[in-house]
Structure formats: C-alpha cells, structure tokens
Amino acid sequence: MDDRASRDGGDGSREGRQRAKADFRFDDARLCFAFAGTLADRGADTPFERLARPEDLSRWAVESDCTTAAPPCTEADLDRARQLREAIQRTGRALADTTPPAPEDIALVNRAAAEPPSTPELAPDATTVRWHGDALAAVLSMVARDLIALCASEHRTRVRICGNPDCGAPFVDTSRAGARRWCSMKTCGALVKKRAYRARQQIPADGAQ
Question: How many CA atoms lie within 13 A of 138 on its CB side?
Fold first, then answer.
C-alpha cells in the first residue's frame, strides 16, 4: 500500500476520520485530473474551492505525492496554479467531447511543463521514494506533463466527464467495457446511487404521487 492509500481509507475517511469537503480527492484519478478536482461541485450553483489559500496548494503538493516537503506558495503562485487547473479542466472536457482544445490552454500547459520537474530517488530498500526539487513550479510541471502524457496515449479517447451533474470532473475510463460513469464510485457513484435509492423510497409501490 502506498502513502496515499494509507492516508485515504476506502470508506472516504482520512486517518480514521470522516473525509471533509475541503479534503483533496485522489481516488481513481490521474494526477492532472486530481488537480482539476481541487475545484469541486463545478456543476452546482456555487462551486467549492479547495485551493482557497496558498497553504492549501502547498498541502496538495505533498498529499498528491509530487513532493515530500511542502513548497512555499504565494498568492501569485496560487493564481498561476488555478489558471493551470482551469486549462486542464477545459482540455479534459474537450477530450471528452472529442473537440479541439483551446490553443491558449495548450500553451499554458506547455509553459508549465517546460519547468524542470521533481526527480524521484528510490530508497535502498526499495520501499519509499523521496522527491528532489520541491519548488512549486516543479510540482506544477509534473501535473502538466501528466496531461501531456495522457494526450499522447491511447487513453485520450477514454476521457469522460463525471455523470454526477454537480461534479463535472474529467476522468479516464479504464474499465474493460468502457462504460464507467463516475469519476469515483467511492464519491460521486455512491452519492448518485444513494440519491436514487432515497427517491425510490419516497414513491409508493403503486406509483401514485
């Protein structure tokens, strides 16, 4: 089990507690789309911002396993990261819709990817990895490069938008049938099924309202 799996329980908890709205989501997500998910509830009237402060961005850098030390972040860094995030979100939606992404979004992704990324160093016992290059630009470079790797792979045709109308997160459908509907069954899939169950419970057996 890797460090991320040990932090996130299968029941949506973190370190023994119920997962909060502000907690980052990494379940079933590629790095680039996990970063896009730092703005939650995109389809709702009021989206939820998980990168509300520079400290949140530093925390995401560590929790995403892109670095082992929280990089210092400024308001300017936060603004730049959010711009990259939205370029990734729009590009993901373009892939899902099989339409060309916006040239300005691709240019922004390429600029971020041009920065030197963090480099991994495997421990002598081959059980842990330490990252060298803790600057925020290195973390964002890794995120941008993950999107580029996706676009260059056969999985680019497997990008979908979550079927939960409140979510709007892109994800890669790697299921054999190619029929996955949710960004994660642990979050949106479970939520939509719970809503459907509650709706059925409110309808009498004869269908009368």
Answer: 19
Q: Where are the alpha helices (DSSP H) in the chain?
A: 3-7, 31-36, 54-63, 75-97, 103-113, 136-151, 190-201
- Cα–Cα distance between 64 and 115 in angstroms, integer? 18
Q: Extract the tokens encoding 138.
A: 């290195």
Q: Report the percent of the chain where pLDDT is more than 70.
A: 80
Q: What angle do CA 106, 159, 192 make, to 5 degrees?
A: 125
The whole-number pLDDT of residue 199 equals 63
CA–CA dist 209, 193 (Å, integer): 21
Answering whether pTM is above 0.85, one says: no
Amino acid at 155: H
Residues 6+ apart with CB under 8 A from 1: none
Sequence-ordered list of residues with C-beta below 8 angstroms from that of 130, at least 6 positions apart, any chain: 68, 120, 121, 123
- Burial of 124 from C-beta contacts in 10 A (0-12 / 13-18 / 19+): exposed
**Rounded Cα distance, 160 and 96, in Å:** 5
**For 92-132, what is each residue's pLDDT tens digit?**
999 999 999 999 999 999 999 999 998 889 999 999 888 88
Distances (CA, A) of 128 to 2, 124, 139, 148, 153: 9, 9, 19, 26, 28
pLDDT of amino acid 194: 65
- Return the structure tokens found at 151: 């676009």
**C-beta neighbour count of 144 within 10 angstroms:** 25
